[in-house]
Amino acid sequence: MEVSQKRRVARLKRQARVRKKVRGTSEYPRLSVFRSAKHIYAQIIEDVTGTTLVAASSLGSDVDLASSGNIEAAKAVGSSIARKALDKNITNVVFDRNGFLYQGRIQALADAAREAGLKL
């Protein structure tokens, strides 16, 4: 097994371990984050019905960026998803880092969402 496969498998194991405990309800939906090499995506999910309430990404037209795979892009996506959530009267969420380490772009997205008014 090559290194990239080992990393992916390790992330999926962490994701499954966290997902056992983190569930999104109607009072506290789940803010799930995914990062790829070029982009970052975030969505607020209500797990009881399995619906996505709000979504934002570095590909979105509401986020204007020079580069979409850096910390500045993560901050823009975090503030964008917070604005969209507040428009739908969602103030409290449970943060799901999706198996990624809480540093760099993941942390920047979470901090920007907090600064924009979302309670994580």
Task: Report on the architecture of this protein.
With 120 residues, this protein is of the alpha+beta class. The chain has one domain: Nucleotidyltransferase, domain 5 (2-Layer Sandwich). It has 3 helices and 4 strands. A 4-stranded mixed beta sheet has the order 3-2-1-4. Helix 2 runs parallel beside helix 3. The longest helix is centred in the first third of the chain and has 17 residues. The model has no long low-confidence stretch (mean pLDDT 92).
How are the elements arranged and paired?
Layout: H1 3-19, E1 30-35, E2 40-46, E3 51-57, H2 71-87, E4 94-96, H3 105-115
Parallel strand pairs: 1-4
Antiparallel strand pairs: 1-2, 2-3
Total number of strands: 4
What's the CATH topology label?
A: Nucleotidyltransferase, domain 5
Order of strands, main sheet, comes to 3-2-1-4
pLDDT averaged over residues: 92
Helix proportion of residues, in percent?
A: 25-40%
Shape: globular
Descriptive tags:
120 residues; alpha+beta; Nucleotidyltransferase, domain 5; four-stranded mixed sheet; globular
